[in-house]
Records
---
Amino acid sequence: MSSLEHHDLLAGLVRLHILNHAAQHEIYGQWMIDELARHGYKLSPGTLYPMLHAMERKGYLFCRRAREGRTVRKLYSATEFGKAGLALARVRLRELTGGGMKAKEKARQKKSSRRSRGRAETARAVF
Ligand SMILES: [Zn+2]
């Protein structure tokens, strides 16, 4: 667990990041490690894999095994429970990141983001 700085604080965000992608497409461990690195999270397989397994055990992720040549790859996607948790976390994150905004500004931003952006892009802005 030492590969992730401020682990206690950021582990939740990393889980949400995983869910965010798993809700859009199937993911696998190494892809997720590379993707998280792109966002500044340096996770070792020894940190990420137990995280994926725990999220599967808790019902956030569904895992299927796909044969690729001689190896079997585990592909994860978000369950309905996981998507519901992600939606709730997005609301909470908005409260956190938008806390300093005036109500009027907030409403205006909400309106314009609804008009110009799809859900996926809005989510990307949050993370
Ligand atoms: Zn990402």
---
Amino acid sequence: MRVLITGGAGFIGSHYARQLLGGAYPEFADAEVVVLDKLTYAGNRANLSTVADDPRLRFVQGDICDAALVGELMRGVDVVVHFAAESHVDRSILGASDFVLTNVVGTDTLLQAALAAEVGKFVHVSTDEVYGSIDEGSWPEEHPLEPNSPYSAAKAGSDLLARAYFRTHGLPVCVTRCSNNYGPYQFPEKMLPLFITNLLDGKQVPLYGDGGNVRDWLHVTDHCRGIQLVAESGRPGEMYNIGGGTELTNRELTERLLTELGADASMVRPVADRKGHDRRYSVDHAKISAELGYRPTVDFDEGLAGTIRWYRENRAWWEPLKPGALVTG
Ligand SMILES: NC(=O)c1ccc[n+]([C@@H]2O[C@H](COP(=O)([O-])OP(=O)(O)OC[C@H]3O[C@@H](n4cnc5c(N)ncnc54)[C@H](O)[C@@H]3O)[C@@H](O)[C@H]2O)c1
């Protein structure tokens, strides 16, 4: 079996690759893995260092928009797990072109090549942000897509292309939509690693607006296990939400971090709210639970403590990345 992982040098894709090669997914125990990654600012070979010597891993630096390369790599592939994307909302507010290119055109390039190569399963990793913002309750998969940022609009475009390749061509595509991931190896401009690394350095953390925006937190290990369930047994043409079950306002999360890292409220720097800032995300993951037996298993307190410990112990990983991090406000 051969698995093509796009974006496998990023935060979530590298976790999936490390888990797979480490034997966490018995159904894929003997799989050969091809990682295709452009190594943008968010991609990092160091994220794969623990599996770099595994003879089953082949790393290819390249762009998912490169049709010739993608076509060549797709030959003989059984399963595609597509993580590659421009993923930071704040960057999409400054300029959306790269988001449209990678997230929409790149996904289309992969879908076309997967169709030609007759791959057995294509898992398109998407986001809860495609649904927009919800004040109460949780979104089921049938909810209309109402993306509000250029990032989520580009992701929604790629979701619709994935659906269309199933409807039009019968390509066995599944789409997963997850909530906010956390864990080790996340680029230190996303909220959680930015705040942890700032506090480790004795620096203030920038909190958007009134801090009342609500996010559901999902440990990257649970997310990748959900993706794996979909890769193995998801029904072609279906969408699956993957949630973590821990909703917190950004202020509540910040207070948890201050406590864990021995800092006080003076370390919080309120900044003007993000443009178009979605107030609340909440996915209903009843479908993947009922159909595929998914449930989040990482306790949030333990997951957060482990994540903080990882950043504390891996300064050599994140310190060189901090100058490239986009910090607004
Ligand atoms: N991080 C989250 O909380 C979260 C939440 C919901 C959905 N997602 C989705 O999960 C996926 C992975 O997210 P992440 O947080 O690991 O992102 P990331 O930004 O950490 O990693 C993205 C990876 O894709 C690579 N890449 C970017 N453009 C490319 C291109 N044109 N060709 C090849 N490779 C390219 C980058 O080099 C990087 O390694 C994304 O599709 C994202 O939309 C993430």
